[in-house]
Amino acid sequence: MAKRPELRSAEITVERLDQFSTEVRTAEMTTYSRKGVLAAISTLRDKLDALERNIDPVKLPDAFFDPSEPRLIGHFVALALISQERKRLDSIEPFYGSGVYAIYYTGPEGLYAPISSTETPIYVGKADPPAGAATITAQETKLYGRLNEHRKNIDKVAGINLADFEYRALAVQSGYQAAAESHLINLFRPIWNNETKILFGLGKHGDAASTRSNNKSPWDTVHPGRKWAVGNPEAKTIDTIYAEVTAHFERSHIFQSTENVFSAFADGIRRADRTMIE
Q1: Largest CA distance in the chain
Q2: For the chain, which terminal residue's Cβ has fewer other Cβ atoms within 10 angstroms, N or C?
């Protein structure tokens, strides 16, 4: 009995793949050709996956939840952070743990008016644990130390008042803090974070002009007061920084309430679930 054309075609394709595999394994490939072969394999894999889904009479679900998926872990840790109580930065006390944090501005400074007293943080960050830390006490006080460093820096400079800052902090299992920080930065685009490339420099350490040439960070230009930054040339003029900050807030989504934030997280989780099965 003659085989159906589609079955014979499938068998021929498998034979050709075996031949292709043998040729690739024995070839002396250049860097360029290796990249080309890998790209072709990736394309082939995607097309075969799409074909499999297309001919299978049982369809895939709209979403697939895998709690071990790294992208979702970042979502969940970030969501747990937003669920924490906001506290005053000027009254922070030592506590154990490493993890992630968010700093919020609540004051009257006009430059930050669009985010003042909202759920959009002015800065987010992480504190990494010591190597091999398996318990919260073994993580030491890394998270507190990082926040306390920010507290001291804010208290030194002009244009802002330490009493106008609040924070959220979350100690997390070692290894999860980086994914959560990345998600928080991508969601909120905090104006003080380096990744936003506008008013960065809060976390910068001493770079005295007498020891080496180093541009003054935009943060130190807008908020002078750290002695080691005096005398360094400005990376950007204050007028440029103000214009960039204004433009950033005009094009960014400002989260006014925790409900807005939770809705954004839910949308992100749905997209991640769908991406996993596409």
Answers
A1: 89
A2: N
pLDDT at 272: 58
Q: What is the pLDDT of residues 197-228, one digit of tens each?
A: 999 999 876 554 454 457 899 999 999 999 88
- How does 3-42 read in b/e, with b if 16+ C-beta sit within 10 Å? eeeeeeeeeeeeeeeeeeeeeeeeeeeeeeeeeeeeeeee
Alpha helices in 157-237 (DSSP H): 177-188, 218-222
Tell me which DSSP letter residue 67 carries.
T
pLDDT band at 168; cut points 50, 70, 90? very high
Tell me the domain boundaries of the chain: 70-264
* DSSP per-residue codes, 29-52: --HHHHHHHHHHHHHHHHHHHHHH
Tell me what pLDDT residue 1 has: 66
| Nearest C-alpha neighbor of 104 from the set 52, 162, 186, 21 | 162
pLDDT at 278: 55
